[in-house]
Design brief:
about 1150 residues, Nucleotidyltransferase, domain 5, seven-stranded mixed sheet, six-stranded antiparallel sheet, 41 helices, nucleotidyltransferase
């Protein structure tokens, strides 16, 4: 490739070696357009189709000088650009004069009908709730005249729906009500009238649901398919409507229908959503307690935390998400009566039959409340989110669909069987360790064990019953035996009688000899505790042998003799889990100094021994010997002196326990004095920061520490095996309940489309069905979609049982998954905002340049730069970078650095975090307001220059010397500055723009102009919650990106009749279910949708061009299952043979834009049609 030393909006020739891709190679001798920053832009042929211009923007000379100085400072100016092969094909014709007009038009096409139906519905009124309800299966329509009519389904354009479920019977719907402008409707399940739901033959699978068990909204009960001509655009509204949608019959058809769902809870969250800290404050207010300010952490950074209590206006414009709270917020009143709901939660079908009228009326009142909330929310939503793409995107996301087959049942069964086996093995291993520990009772050997010495080793005396009752029973027993012998003797012949008599005499002799042993049974209680107190189950009075100990038991880390860097773990009630470091001088301890402990040695004596311990392992014998050298005292020496501490708060206790002396050979979170002579206590690092206590060192957050040997079991090989087993089952243990309760609805062959049944791969013996993920389309403050299982599902790992979950979402025959991951979505959004603000050119900031042009190979990408700056791995740097982009501060970085390397001291972590932020975010300066400029002029400073905090203090100090400036000198920093700015870092310009948006009077996203939640608007929170507001700008813009892309994809699928539907979007990846014949056209459509979306961002930010590096997905995946990468075989403990050998599922394929263009010839029309 030709080396390029300089550029300035030039067209350059390049050449690339043939890599085997004929289409790609045929485009290698075209002209590449390089902008002023050295970034390759779109080919001019594509640029003219997208931006309606032939050339990009020409920058003035002073701007070019500014760009050169900035990039040169960060060693990025003049580097050779990476030249990509040319791309040239004809794009679909856009609607309107610009890309912005185009998106507005296609969004109107998709949502205008639904929007009009919503407005018509909310502008009218609804009838009064009927006084009596018809007790009959199916739908009943209630006329205003009082007449009731049995109907197939509510034939209305828009209505509110509320579905109730008898939880104890399963997931199937029990009752439902609906209301439109003209009528009320009620629906009753056949199960109320005696029909039974089929149950699975597999364990743990519960009921088997079919379409007959669900509510029909678009077809007759017995109808198996819904033809296109029968479909009608309808809008259904509900509060958390995804729960209701999961019980709608037609939503499980493979081919989607025209009905759409609007969630009033999602609308409320978008308009008035709150942060986690605000939620805690509302909970505290509701319960009458004080919110723990420490929970605020980095989510709300302010220079004056004491003012937080003064800024409470947000509490009047926000609430929790429940229907009762939302209705109270928007409609007033005292909330909705929810007492009857308990019958659905804990009652039976008989209870529902007995309370039918009251329960349907309760359901109807929820419909009425939802309608009243909708009437307030819709106008507010359309005002705050004016672009039609937002509504169209949310409507499209409400159609999520996950197909499954009978492999789902196999997955559940295999995972459960493996889980039970591993759990039993884990339990048995823990019992062995408990048995081993019990042996230390002999001669009180536990006192010399560094782990077990402080446990409760007391045992209970054996309880004996009185003997009176036993004597009577003994007599009865003897008589019974004698009677039995006599009866046997009577029935025997003469010779047999003699033999039998000898046996009976022998029996009587033995019976008399062991009579006392027989009687001892009557003296014992059925349950007796023979274990030490630490190993007893106090709720069951203890049992003989080890109890059912689990890895969550507090005694287990001690049984396994866990070490952290070779030091024994110890649990302190006030400080949580930590570890003890020996070698502390005796006179430094808080313990009773009048009593002298035997065998204590100095730090100098123990230091050589400590150096001999490996960082990766520890011999329990050596540790025990060291422990004995430090601690040979009675039990009173080892107890905690907590009388005074009990009255202190948690933070006061931690400060009191902090020690000023520390070992020179070890650094960690501490040390603390916990009253143990000769030892320092260091706390284990917590993922949420050093102020938080660790509750269980065997939790999933410490798996990586187990893997790298930091956290190690030293008891025996059994202990190591316990850690391995725990690592295997921890994922399934945490996700099991959510997975087992997924509602799977199975389809009969007549309910499948012909595309499935006519496929060569179709097998009548296989079952096909679907899961509808219960997605809240705007579930967080940033409008991110939320779902508890599928949107948080892990990728498959070899040591995680059940982690192949996503791969169990499998296409029916004749279909494929087509999808892609948006490359560095948030990073690009943040960088393009910074580029626009700084110089109006892609790649003009160091952050933007590294995002677009940086290479891992030469260390010019931002993750490699950060890793080099603070000496961490690139993967760790990626976590830090994303956290910083989301608004996290130095405290967050310090916490993460100490997690990455627990051997860092707090000071070292602080210095590294400060260095990293200085290089990336830059240093803070202030832009002065009118009062600040007056102060600057009066003290001899330039009034229009930016000043540092130190310079501002110097100005105030100088002003105090002059009486006329005394009033200015007394002003606070906030009173003298207009805003804070960042300078000198690679990301300074980006953060300046993000904070400018976050601090504006009405913060809104720069592309679709979506407003921030009322609970975070400056008028309601002042200058509080800046971290959350900065985070909102990037994250909410990412939601805009997703909405733009799926709206564009829906338009292309409709226009070119690409058979398929939206499946799911998980963070930055999107997946569609596409007919086999259309898979390549769908892949091209997805690439074009991404291109249009990126161009929309650039256009709205006045950057009327687009770098070719981000114009297209790096690859589009075409696969039969849902997985992160098409070449993942998803081997796990529950799927040891992988998908290919175990399930017969081959790998998918990934196609870049060049391969897709070769397959489709660059056209979205079917190839046969073109011929």
């Amino acid at each position: 490739m030709c080396a390029i030393q300089a550029w300035r909006g030039t067209t350059l020739l390049y050449s690339t070696e043939n890599d085997g891709n004929d289409y790609k190679s045929s485009l290698c001798n075209e002209n590449a357009y390089i902008n002023s920053c050295g970034i390759q832009m779109l080919p001019r042929s594509l640029h003219s189709q997208l931006f309606k211009k032939k050339t990009g923007k020409v920058l003035p000379e002073d701007t070019l000088v500014k760009i050169k100085e900035h990039l040169s400072k960060h060693s990025l100016w003049g580097k050779s650009p990476v030249i990509l092969p040319n791309i040239d094909f004809e794009l679909p014709e856009m609607l309107g004069k610009s890309i912005a007009d185009h998106f507005k038009e296609i969004a109107h096409l998709q949502c205008s009908s639904y929007r009009n139906k919503l407005l018509a519905f909310t502008s009218g009124s609804i009838p009064c709730i009927p006084s009596a309800w018809n007790f009959a299966p199916g739908w009943t329509k209630y006329c205003e005249t009082g007449e009731t009519v049995q109907v197939d389904f509510p034939d209305e354009d828009a209505y509110v729906l509320d579905v109730e479920v008898c939880v104890t019977e399963g997931h199937f719907p029990t009752l439902a009500t609906a209301v439109s402008n003209g009528h009320w409707y009620s629906w009753c399940s056949n199960q109320i009238f005696g029909d039974k739901v089929e149950h699975s033959l597999f364990k743990n699978m519960g009921p088997v649901y079919g379409l007959k068990d669900l509510i029909n909204l678009e077809s007759k009960i017995q109808q198996d398919r819904l033809m296109l001509r029968e479909q009608k655009e309808r809008i259904v509204i509900g509060h958390n409507v995804s729960y209701d949608r999961a019980r709608i019959k037609e939503q499980y058809f493979v081919e989607s229908t025209k009905i759409r769902f609007v969630d009033t809870m999602a609308l409320h969250v978008a308009i008035s959503g709150i942060t986690s800290f605000q939620r805690n404050m509302l909970l505290a207010n509701k319960s009458g307690t004080q919110a723990d300010r420490s929970l605020k952490n980095s989510s709300c950074q302010t220079s004056k935390p004491s003012k937080l209590s003064e800024v409470t206006e947000w509490q009047t414009v926000s609430s929790f998400n429940g229907l009762s709270d939302v209705h109270k917020l928007y409609c007033g009143g005292s909330g909705i009566e929810k007492e009857k709901r308990n019958i659905f939660v804990s009652g039976s079908l008989n209870d529902i039959r007995d309370n039918f009228q009251e329960l349907v009326a309760y359901c109807a009142r929820d419909c009425q409340a939802t309608y009243e909330v909708l009437c307030v929310l819709i106008p507010e939503f359309l005002t705050r989110f004016p672009h039609p793409v937002t509504l169209a995107g949310m409507l499209e996301m409400s159609t999520a669909y996950l197909p499954v087959n009978n492999n789902w049942q196999r997955y559940i069964q295999d995972s459960e069987d493996t889980y039970r086996e591993l759990e039993n093995e884990l339990t048995q291993s823990l019992r062995l360790e408990a048995d081993r520990a019990c042996q230390l009772l002999q001669n009180q050997a536990y006192k010399n064990d560094p782990w077990l010495w402080d446990l409760d080793w007391s045992t209970k005396q054996l309880k004996i019953k009185k003997a009176a009752v036993g004597a009577k029973q003994s007599g009865k027993i003897g008589i019974t035996h004698q009677n039995a012998m006599f009866s046997n003797t009577v029935t025997c012949s003469g010779e047999e009688k003699n033999e039998k008599r000898d046996e009976d005499e022998r029996f009587l002799q033995l019976n008399e000899k062991f009579e006392e042993l027989f009687l001892s049974k009557t003296h014992l209680f059925k349950r007796n505790s023979l274990l030490p107190g630490a190993l007893c189950d106090n709720g069951k009075d203890g049992i003989i042998g080890p109890t059912e100990i689990t890895t969550s038991s507090q005694v287990v880390p001690k049984l396994l003799k866990l070490t952290w860097d070779g030091f024994p773990l110890f649990h302190c009630r006030e400080l949580g889990w930590g570890y003890l470091v020996p070698g502390r001088p005796m006179d430094s301890s808080q313990a009773n100094r009048s009593e002298i402990s035997e065998g204590l040695v100095t730090a100098e004596d123990i230091f050589p021994q400590l150096r001999s311990i490996s960082d990766k392992m520890a011999d329990p014998t050596e540790l025990a010997n060291q422990w004995i050298a430090f601690r040979r005292c009675n039990k009173s020496d080892s107890t905690f002196h907590r009388g005074e501490e009990a009255s202190l708060s948690k933070s006061q206790t931690k400060r009191q326990n902090w020690t000023h002396d520390r070992p020179a050979w070890h650094f960690g979170i501490g040390p603390y004095d916990v009253g143990i002579r000769g030892c320092w206590f260091f706390r284990l690092p917590h993922k949420s920061g050093i102020e938080n206590n660790v509750g269980n060192p065997l939790a999933k957050d410490y798996l990586n520490k187990i893997e790298d040997g930091t956290l190690k079991a030293t008891s025996s090989s059994v202990a190591e095996h316990v850690l391995k087993l725990n690592r295997n089952i921890i994922y399934w243990r945490n996700a099991r309940d959510r997975i087992l309760t997924q509602m799977v609805v199975w389809l009969s062959p007549s309910q499948l489309p012909r595309k499935v049944t006519k496929s060569e791969d179709y097998d009548l013996s296989r079952r096909f069905g679907a899961i509808l993920p219960q997605i809240v389309t705007s579930g967080t403050l940033t409008r991110r979609a939320v779902e508890s299982t599928w949107m948080t599902a892990s990728n498959a790992y070899k040591d995680r049982l059940g982690s192949e979950l996503k791969a169990m979402i499998q296409c029916p025959p004749g279909f494929n998954f087509v999808g892609a991951d948006v490359d560095s979505q948030e990073l690009w959004i943040a960088s393009v905002i910074g580029d626009s603000y700084f110089a109006g050119q892609h790649g003009s900031t160091a952050f933007g340049w590294m995002t677009l042009q940086g290479k891992k190979s030469d260390g010019t990408d931002m993750h490699s730069r950060t890793a080099l700056t603070v000496q961490i791995t690139r993967d760790q740097a990626k976590i830090l970078n994303y956290g910083r982009i989301y608004g996290a501060g130095e405290r967050f970085a310090k916490t993460l650095l100490m997690q990455f390397n627990h051997r860092l001291t707090e000071q070292e972590a602080t210095e590294k975090a400060r260095k990293m932020y200085s290089v990336t975010k830059g240093n803070s300066v202030f832009k002065l307001n009118n009062l600040g400029r007056r102060l600057a002029s009066a003290t001899g400073h330039e009034p229009d220059e930016l000043v540092t905090h130190e310079q501002l203090n110097e100005m105030r100090k100088a002003a105090r010397k002059e009486f006329r400036l005394a009033s200015l000198a007394k002003l606070s920093t906030d009173s003298l500055i207009e805003r804070r700015l960042w300078v000198g870092g690679t990301e300074s310009h980006m953060f300046n723009k993000l904070e400018e948006i976050a601090q504006s009077e009405t913060p809104q996203t720069p592309v679709l102009n979506c407003r921030i939640s009322r609970a975070l608007e400056p008028r309601n929170v002042g200058k509080e919650f800046m971290t959350s507001r900065v985070n909102w700008v990037v994250q909410s813009s990412a939601v805009d990106y997703l909405h733009l892309m799926i709206v564009a994809m829906r338009y292309l699928c409709d226009k070119y009749r690409i058979g398929g539907r939206f499946c799911i979007s998980i963070h930055d990846e999107v997946r569609y279910l596409i007919k086999e014949d259309d898979k390549f056209r769908a892949a091209l459509a997805l690439q074009i949708a991404n291109l249009w979306t990126r161009c929309m961002f650039s256009y709205q930010l006045n950057l009327e061009d687009l770098p070719q590096a981000v114009a297209f997905f790096s690859s589009v995946d075409i696969d039969k299952v849902l997985r992160k990468e098409t070449n993942m075989d998803c081997q796990t403990p529950s799927n040891p043979y992988g998908l290919k050998r175990g399930y017969g599922i081959d790998f998918g394929r990934s196609y870049d834009i060049y391969q897709i263009l070769e397959e489709t010839k660059g056209c979205l029309e079917p190839l046969l049609k073109k011929v």
